Amino acid sequence: xxxxxxxxxxxxxxxxxxxxxxxxxxxxxxxxxxxxxxxxxxxxxxxxxxxxxxxxxxxxxxxxxxxxxxxxxxxxxxxxxxxxxxxxxxxxxxxxxxxxxxxxxxxxxxxxxxxxxxxxxxxxxxxxxxxxxxxxxxxxxxxxxxxxxxxxxxxxxxxxxxxxxxxxxxxxxxxxxxxxxxxxxxxxxxxxxxxxxxxxxxxxxxxxxxxxxxxxxxxxxxxxxxxxxxxxxxxxxxxxxxxxxxxxxxxxxxxxxxxxxxxxxxxxxxxx
Length: 272
Known about the structure:
The protein is an all-alpha fold. Helices cover 74% and strands 0% of the residues. The termini are far apart.
């Protein structure tokens, strides 16, 4: 074709404008997703480590506050995991997975439009080609023979189909590329979130063991140790011979009590 591109485009008829609209709409959404799928926006460097450190040093509320201060897809997943902190590792990992699915849906938000336009463009091209061929056939029938104008109309009818296929190829590539990039980001977010959960669970277990060790090492204030042989219970339970009392009310032990704790009788006996 020696004609300029613009003249070739106009020869395709009104369907060329519809295909062009599909291409512009699909390309606009593709560019928006390409800019929105920046890895640094969704996975800030070292965020999961900062959250784990803050939770370990300052508590759970401080970690959740940090996630809210630094909004991103990763912080959403970590915040969901911290909401179930203390319920067990499996519950926290389930929270990471559930929130990761929501994040993936948001990452794919506008790729669906790109896919729709990629399907719509070749269909519009085929429809335009069919309409052009019908018009060419009508002209040929009116002339009685296939004239030069009829062949020209048939050639122009194929332009929408070719343009639609070209747009479909470009948009299909953009669609699958963006979906793949979104899935890669979501997968990395899931892995980092579960790594943070494992670290938090390990630190929590270490803290529990440390508390148990401290409790074991703390010396409790017990009764003084009994020195000497154990008391003879059979002898202690013998009748005393006093009326109204068949059993001793106390058991003799060899524990040496401080002077302040000794009964008055013992102090009196010493004085006499």
